[in-house]
């Protein structure tokens, strides 16, 4: 596996990586050996603890702690809404409004199967650019529900390109080979120094190349 992640921040307490697509953060019940966590531990030669998750197909920034104590502090920041995250998504069609909030109670497919109750989810969105068949959207979630962005965008009628759980492949006029979602920005308070940390990464190559092709198609 070539370059499954890049380290973008690393000190004695915290490491933040930019992960590629198709890589699990932690093993599923199938017991995969190569996960982001296992590969990171192998590179650093020390144990690390994920503080949140990204879907297998989602690329971008994810925070790891180097001790359970630091992990708890960072996870508390997530629970308290201190950490700010931004995503870029390619979504089907054009949004009805160029910016706004998506708010309401949601539940993911797995939660429904286990009888969980829907929970309130809130996301701010802004259209960065739109084309006839898809739009580039910036997303800032204010809550951290499972599959929040995927469910909310599908509910608006603008599912993320490559979506297979909350939309049908036949409904997309343009195709993307995976879920077109990228965690591009993280802001958090360092759990030891208490300094504000701001990290930003560019789009992965497949999403960049897709936008170039879209520009060519629409000349």
- General shape: globular
CATH architecture: 2-Layer Sandwich
**Unreliable segments of 5+ consecutive residues:** none
Number of domains: 1
Q: If you compute it from the alpha carbons, what radius of gyration comes out, rounded to the nearest whole angstrom?
A: 18 Å
Category from helices, strands and their pairing: alpha+beta
State the CATH topology. Answer: Pseudouridine synthase
The CATH class label is Alpha Beta
What does the largest sheet look like?
10 strands, mixed
**Proportion in helices:** 10-25%
The beta-strand count equals: 10
Strand content: 25-35%
For the termini, the CA-CA separation is 37 Å
Short description:
The protein has 219 residues and is an alpha+beta fold.
Topology, element by element:
Blueprint lengths: L4 E6 L3 E6 L16 H9 L4 E2 L8 E7 L2 H12 L4 E9 L6 E8 L2 H5 L5 E12 L3 E8 L6 H9 L24 E9 L6 E5 L4 H13 L2
Parallel strand pairs: 4-9
Antiparallel strand pairs: 1-2, 2-4, 3-4, 5-8, 5-9, 6-7, 7-8, 9-10
Structure description:
With 219 residues, this protein is an alpha+beta fold. It has a single domain (5-217), classed as Pseudouridine synthase. It contains 5 helices and 10 strands. The protein has helices spanning 36-44, 68-79, 109-113, 148-156, 205-217, and strands spanning 5-10, 14-19, 49-50, 59-65, 84-92, 99-106, 119-130, 134-141, 181-189, 196-200. Strands 1, 2, 3, 4, 5, 6, 7, 8, 9 and 10 form a 10-stranded mixed sheet that branches. The chain is globular, with a radius of gyration of 18 Å. The termini are far apart. The relative contact order is 0.17. The model has no long low-confidence stretch (mean pLDDT 91).
